[in-house]
Design a protein that fits this description.
By secondary structure, this protein is of the alpha/beta class. Helix content is 36%, strand content 31%. The protein contains 9 helices and 13 strands. The chain has a 9-stranded mixed sheet with strand order 5-4-6-7-3-10-11-12-13, sandwiched between helices. The chain starts with a strand and ends with a strand.
């Protein structure tokens, strides 16, 4: 069993002692076009390189076979075989998959990804605003189930989240949707933020189980994935 799953961003992996820690939830959040899905796919590709499977729960229909081909090149077939893709159509189906997670992640699974964890939740809230409290409670329950599976199966869970603006902050900032509940359950939190260069994003490790100091790197989004450049 792997102690960490490499993200492919070498500076981040080195700082974390090898990559995403096992037995906990990692949250990656950011605005559109900041590489959240690419980051998640890259972790799945790295699992495949180790001969391990990933359960990839694609709630946004954003998993791209073309993108996977760009990231894996000649290893596409062998990589694709080790990524088990499922696409829930609504928040209820997402709950069913998470509740059955222990049955999915059997032998040779090394990672679970939920991308984007909050998208179907947001859609449901917009349809039924009177049920917001009930839906928030269900979101919390699903996170608890993911955390329990990560702990008992020793398989890291990587979730991505959309952001919303914090209007009372000057200058305006962004934070993940359902910030409080996501922040409670995630032991590692990574923020992806745009820069003036569309090919460069700012990756910040905001929280980690080892208590390491917050650290930021500028990383490049390329056809082959996300790769580190400088850190500060």
């Amino acid at each position: 069993m792997q102690d960490h799953i490499p993200t492919g961003c070498k500076s981040l992996d080195k700082y974390l002692g090898g990559g995403l820690p096992c037995d906990t939830i990692t949250l990656v959040y950011g605005e559109e076009e900041t590489g959240k899905t690419t980051f998640a796919m890259q972790c799945a590709v790295n699992c495949a390189k180790m001969g391990q499977k990933t359960l990839f729960i694609d709630c946004d229909n954003s998993f791209s076979v073309l993108r996977l081909n760009q990231m894996t090149m000649k290893r596409f077939d062998s990589t694709a075989e080790l990524i088990i893709l499922t696409r829930p159509s609504d928040f209820h189906e997402q709950a069913v998959i998470i509740d059955q997670l222990a049955e999915y992640v059997t032998k040779n699974f090394a990672l679970t990804v939920v991308d984007t964890f909050t998208s179907l939740y947001r859609l449901r809230v917009s349809e039924f605003p009177s049920k917001t409290f009930e839906l928030n409670r269900e979101l919390n329950r699903q996170l608890a189930a993911l955390a329990e599976t990560a702990k008992t199966k020793m398989i890291p869970v990587l979730i991505t989240s959309q952001v919303h603006s914090v209007l009372n902050d000057l200058p305006a900032t962004v934070e993940p949707v359902a910030t409080r509940v996501l922040g409670f359950w995630a032991s590692t939190v990574i923020a992806l933020k745009p820069t003036e260069n569309p090919h460069i994003i700012r990756l910040t490790l905001e929280k980690n189980p080892s208590g390491l100091k917050t650290k930021t790197w500028e990383v490049a989004i390329e056809e082959s994935g996300i790769h580190g450049s400088s850190g500060y």
